[in-house]
Design a protein that fits this description.
The protein is of the alpha/beta class. It has helices at 22-32, 45-54, 59-66, 79-90, 105-114, 162-169, 197-203, 224-248, 268-290, and strands spanning 9-13, 39-43, 100-102, 126-133, 138-143, 154-157, 174-176, 179-181, 184-188, 207-211, 251-253, 299-301. It has 9 helices and 12 strands. Strands 1, 2, 4, 5, 6, 8, 9, 10, 11 and 12 form a 10-stranded mixed β-sheet that branches. Strands 3-7 form a two-stranded parallel ribbon.
Amino acid sequence: MVDKNKKSLGLALGGGGLKGLAHIGVLQILAEAGIEPQYLAGTSAGSVIAALYASGINPYQMEEILQTINPRDYLDYDVIGILQYICSFILPFYRKELNGMMAGKKLEELIYKLTGGRSLQEAKQKLAIMACNIDTGQQVIFTNQGVDYENESVVVITEALLSEAVRCSSAIPAAFQPRLLRGMKMVDGGLKDMVPARALRMMGADYILAINLSQPVYKNPVHGIPEIASRSINILTYETSDTEERLFADMLLFPGVGDVSLDDLSNADRIIRMGRRIMKENILELLEALKGGNNRSPSVSI
């Protein structure tokens, strides 16, 4: 039975590559406390976890699924395209563009399979997934809610598959090729909104918990185009996302995972544990806040 006096919870899941597995740990602690978010918003890696959860996969099942997949299931390097691009520098009168190192088809196919081919409108929670039209710079929001942003720089899409929305949101520039959809060239939503707390406020969530996978200072060097591209987005969007989170989020958590490459699933257990740790440290405060009756008082935990 739903407690009508209890505040509704919106969960904003930020982007960050494989660090997004920390979101699974956060959801596990919420489940153990009997808390189910009514609103979900995700960017890039956060969109993956949001889509899985909204399709009915609980966080423990997500952890089990990780044991059955390997990087080849979601990373598909466009070897032919890369070779053709190299040839364009060698052969006269031969030109070939390269829009990304990976085609992104395997990622979309994997999400389609895991979500059962569900659409946005079939999501169990009120949902928003962030992407960006790289040609125009417009933010693209995939949602099952009729939200009017009254802003020409925002495009709202309500009819699409969850797998399509995730593929668009996760297309890290240079690493993944953009996803063409409805005449738009979609790339990683982190370019516009790394941790989508504002979208949850627009959808009507009473209390917003935001999970930020970024950090102001990095200790480890990056290697390869995917890591460099991902780090670049994190650095460019950190200050902007930090300001927005403090405006719209009631609780802001930083799991502090550190750097993880896109193919390093050996760190999956550690990343999930870090998500569990940060949420467990703050679960009592969240439970108290959701009881209602208190004024909004943003808190930040690192």
